[in-house]
Amino acid sequence: MEHFAEIKRLSRQYLDYTANNLSKLVQCKSLSLHEEQAQLELIRQMQSAGFDEVRMDKLGNVIGRIGNGNRILAFDAHIDTVDTGNTDDWEFDPLGGAISNGYVHGRGTADQKGGAAALVTAGRILKELVFDRDMSVYFVGSVIEEDCDGLCWKYLVEEEGLRPDVVVLTEPTSLNIYRGQRGRMEMEVRFYGLSCHGSAPERGKNAIYMASSVALEIEKLNKRLKTDPSLGKGSITVSEIISKSPSLCAVADFAQLHLDRRLTLGETKESAMEEIRLLISDMKASVEVPVYMGKSFTGLTYGMEKYYPTWQMPESHEVIQCGVNVFKELYGHPPTIGNWTFSTNGVTIHGIYGIPVLGFGPGNEELAHAPNEKVATDHLEKAAAFYAALACTV
Question: Of 33, 137, 199, 239, which one has the greatest count of Cβ atoms within 10 A?
Answer without folding.
Answer: 137
